[in-house]
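Feature request disguised as a bug: please show the residue count (202) next to Transcriptional regulator in the output. Example input:
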Amino acid sequence: MPANKRRGKDEPDSDAHNKLGRNLRRERTLRKWSLKAASEATGVASSTLSKIENGIMSPTFDILQRIVQGMSLDLTGLLEDIPHPRIIGRRSITRAGEGVELRSSSYIHSLLATDLSFKKFLPFRSIVTARSMEEFGGLVKHRGEEFFMVLKGEVEFHSEFYNPARLRPGDSVYLDSQMGHALLSIGKEPAEVIWVSSTVLQ
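Example output, currently without the count:
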C-alpha cells in the first residue's frame, strides 16, 4: 500500500481479519446456517457478517462477543487456522509485540495468549483511538464482566449509569459489561490500556 494512501474503515488491516473471516464462514457452513440464520442467532446484521467473512470489515469487540456467544464459539479458535484442543495445566507467554492485532474504528487491540483456546477470560492490550462519542459510535454492551487499567496517556470512561470519569496511568476500572460503556483518548497521544474480559461461553 502506498505510504500516502489511507486505509478505509472497512478494508482489512491484518491477516487476523482474513483468518477470522475464513473460520467464521467455516463454522457457519458446518452448522448449515445461512447468513440470515447466523444473524438471528448472533444479533449481528447479515451484511456485517458477510463483510467479516470476506475480510473487508474490522469487527468491533462488541460484535465479536455477540458472534462467539450466539454461535457458542471460542474467539481464539476463530483467529487460528486450526483450533487448539483443551488441555490441563497449561500456560501461555506472549512476548512484547507478539499479540494478534485486531483493529476497529475505536481501538487497536493486541490479543494476548492466543495459543490457548477456550479461555475463561480474554486478555488484550489496546490503543484507544476514538476521541469523541460521535467517533466511538455510542455506548456498547455485551454479556460478561471486564477489567482494564490505563498504561499510557489519559482516557475518559463513559458508562450508562455514571458520570464520565477521567483516568490516568495506574487507574483501573472493573465493570459489568452489560452496562453501556465507551473509552475515549483525551491526551495528546492515543492512550494505551491492558484489558481483561470474561468470555461467558457456556
